[in-house]
Amino acid sequence: RPAPGGGRRGAGLGRARGGGAAVARVSVLPRCKADVLTLLAATRHASTTVRIPVISMSMGGIGARSRVYGWQYGSARTFAVGKGASAPGQIPIEELRAVLATVRRASGAP
User: Fold this and answer.
1) CB 64 within 8 A of CB 98
2) In 3-state terms, what secondary structure has residue 1?
3) Cβ proximity of 35 and 8 under 8 Å
4) Can you tell me the distance from the alpha carbon of 94 to that of 19, in angstroms, rounded to the nearest whole number?
5) In this structure, which long-range contacts are made by residues 27-33, counting pairs with CB atoms below 8 Å and at least 24 apart in sequence?
6) How far separated are the first and last CA of the chain, in Å rounded?
7) Which of 28, 52, 75, 82 is 20 to 30 Å from the Cα of 89, by its Cα?
8) Biggest alpha carbon distance in the chain?
């Protein structure tokens, strides 16, 4: 169980660089909406302090928002369904592309 404020989650992302990883990646199954916000906060912190790309996502229906908004918090990639789901909460790739394009336009992001 993660510590409030992203303690364990953020620590894992930070340790990836020290362990020689090329990418820091974490995926979690949130128990509530607050867990998703905790992960996004940890992602933001890690993306500004770790010198390797950070990828994070929450699974399940509750976590689907992290797949759409994770890039705004510093996640370098997201995951979607191609031919078949490999994890809960994945969004079909064409739908995710459309949603991401809409969110990017609305937020003024490139």
Assistant:
1) no
2) coil
3) no
4) 35
5) 27/56, 27/57, 27/58, 27/59, 27/87, 28/2, 28/56, 28/57, 28/58, 28/59, 28/63, 29/58, 29/59, 29/60, 29/63, 29/88, 30/58, 30/59, 30/60, 30/62, 30/63, 32/62, 33/62
6) 36
7) 52
8) 38
Tens of pLDDT, residue by residue over 33-45, are: 999 999 999 999 9
Query: What pLDDT digit, counting tens, does each position of 73-102 carry?
Result: 999 999 899 888 877 778 999 999 999 999
Joined together, the tokens standing for residue 61 give 């229906």
Nearest to 9 by CA among 34, 27, 21: 27
Residue with tokens 């890690």: 46
Q: Are 103 and 70 in contact (CB under 8 A)?
A: no
Report d(CA 63, CA 77) in Å as an integer.
15
